[in-house]
Design goal:
216 residues; alpha/beta; two-stranded antiparallel ribbon; globular
């Protein structure tokens, strides 16, 4: 499946489940104190480097974009699903949301203070990920910060692994391999949070969040 076909299939799949998704995940940070703390740290780092905007890429119904706004960031959301974007606009009428592709962002070079990619990269086939990472690097200002979340592979000998996501096929990444890919594009890892799955979690995958900074 080509990149454009993958983008369209993902968009259509999330269009179909958008209202249910919004209802299920609107308060998902409530029981995630470590993730809230990481987002707060991300916001503080972005603010210390200026007042550049922050793009929440794969924003879904906008709940995390609104959280970032509450942390004092000039945050806006981008999502491939028009229905998700419409729900985000309805829920957060004062914030900006756009339909778009992470592989071709309608954002000028070097203008953003931060990029959040929270489990939005997982549906991108691995051969297409370098182009998306290049877009992250392109739109970030020097000293800007990227926070990227994803599920880990079963071990370092697996660079990527596909799995049967509830919505559409998704991919897990070796944290070291993805950090290397970020570094290849001038995004240097500064921190890493690893969350172990709970005993009753349906998928026994580690959750990884990498924080990286664009080189000056």
């Amino acid at each position: 499946m080509t990149g454009s076909h993958t983008h369209r299939a993902t968009s259509e799949a999330y269009d179909a489940i958008a209202p249910t998704y919004a209802q299920l995940f609107h308060d998902q940070l409530r029981d995630r104190p470590l993730e809230r703390a990481l987002l707060s740290a991300f916001a503080e780092l972005v603010r210390t480097n200026g007042d550049g905007g922050v793009a929440d890429l794969g924003c879904g119904p906008g709940h995390i974009t609104a959280h970032l706004h509450g942390l004092g960031l000039n945050a806006f959301g981008v999502d491939a699903s028009p229905v998700m974007v419409e729900l985000a606009r309805e829920a957060n009428p004062r914030l900006r949301f756009e339909v778009g592709s992470m592989a071709a962002l309608d954002i000028e070079d070097g203008v953003l203070g931060g990029v959040l990619s929270r489990w939005s990269l997982i549906h991108t086939p691995p051969p297409d990920v370098p182009a998306v990472v290049a877009e992250f690097a392109r739109v970030l200002a020097p000293g800007g910060h990227l926070l990227i979340g994803f599920s880990a592979t079963d071990g370092p000998h697996h660079e990527t692994q596909a799995y049967d996501h509830t919505v559409v096929t998704a991919y897990r990444w070796s944290p070291d391999r993805l950090a290397e890919l970020l570094r290849d594009h001038g995004l240097v890892e500064s921190a890493r949070m690893v969350t172990e799955p709970g005993p009753t979690d349906r998928r026994q995958f580690q959750e990884i969040q990498l924080l990286a900074c664009k080189a000056w």
